[in-house]
Amino acid sequence: MNRFDANSTTDQVIDGISLQGQLAVVTGASSGLGVETCRVLAAAGATVLMVARDEEKLESVAQELRRQQPDAQLHTQIMDLADLNSVRIAATEILLHHGQIQLLINNAGVMACPLQYTAQGFEMQFGTNHLGHFLFTGLLSDALIDGAPGRVVNLSSAGHRFARFNFDDPSYQNRPYDKWQAYGESKTANILFTVGLDLRTRERGVRAFAVHPGVIMTNLSRHMEEADLIALNERNPSGEPLVFKSLEQGAATTVWAASSPHLAGRGGIYLENCQIAPAAVQGKGIGVESYAVNPAAAERLWSLSEELVGQSFEF
Ligand SMILES: NC(=O)c1ccc[n+]([C@@H]2O[C@H](COP(=O)([O-])OP(=O)(O)OC[C@H]3O[C@@H](n4cnc5c(N)ncnc54)[C@H](OP(=O)(O)O)[C@@H]3O)[C@@H](O)[C@H]2O)c1
Known about the structure:
There is one protein chain. The chain contains ten helices and ten strands. It is of the alpha/beta class. About 40% of the residues lie in helices and about 15% in strands. The chain has a single domain (about 10-310), classed as Rossmann fold, CATH 3.40.50.720. Bound molecules: NADP nicotinamide-adenine-dinucleotide phosphate. The site of NADP nicotinamide-adenine-dinucleotide phosphate (NAP) has 29 residues, from helix 2 and strand 7.
């Protein structure tokens, strides 16, 4: 029986689980949920490859984790998800040193930024949150399959409920930019990607999960102003004020997705509060929208993503 819920912490969900002998690759390892995820996976015995774009920040976080856990097996890798060339270089460097990966945590993300573009000209939230991770995962897929059984965890958000994915104009070329809608679209893409990935890798022993971590005070809110918090509260489907989680509670669903025996044989699903989420219902704060787990939309996004990154992936 699964005994975890919204209040469970990372240390509670990993208790009694050993990740000895596993390699975990974690993006967004320089801040917030990514740091806590790395800390806990390493404490459970995994070798952790911490991936982030800012070398100084990443090294200082890694140094602090090494200070806390002198025996931790921690490596670092620089990668800017907003530049597909950087993603290709990082994946090549990772594969040079690691032939097998058991856990890939696609955690990095940017939220509600002003209209900006990635190096290849994609809207920043779509490009960073989805396309960069799509390419990264595809490039690492052989190592994931060679390392099976394994899991891929894609950080999505309840913000996926703001918007279905816009296939006609993913980079806002022909419509006014709305930073929250763009965030919602990118987070819907994270779930659709999870569905498409799981379908391709499940027979090879690699299962994919999408996660909503809850609402946690991190650097993710760097682009937010007071008015945004009010607007966000208004968009909250339950109509109730947002309830904040601690960092340890926030990263718990990611760690649960990566390690829980309760999820054996499952995949292509959306998790929140250390549970498999129900279907979203109007007026309720939890749940996954049907448009985000629609298999036809997942296939359409897969084809579009391959086209946009200019590369196909065989499994
Ligand atoms: N916090 C919440 O309430 C919440 C709610 C729902 C979903 N989430 C999701 O949880 C994930 C982690 O968020 P967080 O709250 O921990 O936020 P955070 O503290 O801002 O951490 C985000 C991480 O992503 C990295 N990142 C951003 N752009 C990048 C790029 N172009 N290339 C490489 N790395 C990049 C950041 O690097 P820098 O340190 O260099 O900026 C940082 O390491 C995100 O996917 C977010 O959407 C969070």
